[in-house]
Amino acid sequence: MRTNPMVKPQTSSGWAVTLTVISGVCLVIAIRLILAQPSASAAGLAIVAAAIVLVGAAAAIWFMKIRRTKTWITHAVQQWEHFSSVKSQLGVTTEVTVLDIHALDPTGTWVTIRWDKFGYVQRAWMEAIPDEIWRGSVLLISPDPAQIQVHGPWPEVYYLTAADYHAFASAEALPYVGDPRYQNEPRLMRQIPDGSPGTHWP
User: Fold this and answer.
1) Contact, 91 vs 143, CB < 8 A?
2) Which residues pair with 181 in a beta bridge?
3) pTM across the whole model
């Protein structure tokens, strides 16, 4: 099963924690052996060497985890930069977050979405689009005035056409948007959803 790319990889690792604990125990045992029985110093040194190997393995795991997380954040922030750039070029737009994906079909997908402007959750039919959408994706769309009207009843099912879809980004990456550590282009003006410039709905 593929990992959801909209979810930030975890930096914690059960293996790294286990190896760190075992290496610590090995060091304690080795020190006690060396101090208690000088004749057992060879065994103590062997245990110290084993502990060093375990610490190195744990450090390598931590390093890979942290590097993977940083790579994910950088890519996710770039997605938001693209999202904001597209949004600034359009007219009336809004954001919806895909909370769940129920059924896939060659022509589209049944999903549960949240209208971020209102916090309203509902079922929706999303027509097949060129991008691969996962749970946790924030979609930039143009709301269909034929389905949603001011002071009119909200549709029980919203039908999102491919023509009304413009971009997507990870909801989990929003806290990192604007963080100087992940800004590749300092002069690029960033725009957090529902900010300015641009015209937003409603």
Assistant:
1) no
2) none
3) 0.74
Pairing of strands 157-160, 120-127: parallel
Contact 30, 48 (CB under 8 A): yes
Of 115, 119, 83, the closest CA to residue 96 belongs to 115
Question: According to the model, what pLDDT value does residue 194 have?
Answer: 47
Identity of the amino acid at 178: G
Max intra-chain CA distance, the chain: 88
Going by C-alpha positions, the residue among 45, 53, 18, 13 that lies closest to residue 29 is 45
**Residue 137 CA to its chain's centroid (Å):** 9
End-to-end Cα separation, the chain, in angstroms: 38
Model pLDDT, residue 188: 40
Residue whose tokens read 């099912």? 157
Q: Residues 150, 139: contact at Cβ < 8 Å?
A: no
Nearest alpha-carbon partner for 134 in 9, 1, 3, 20: 3
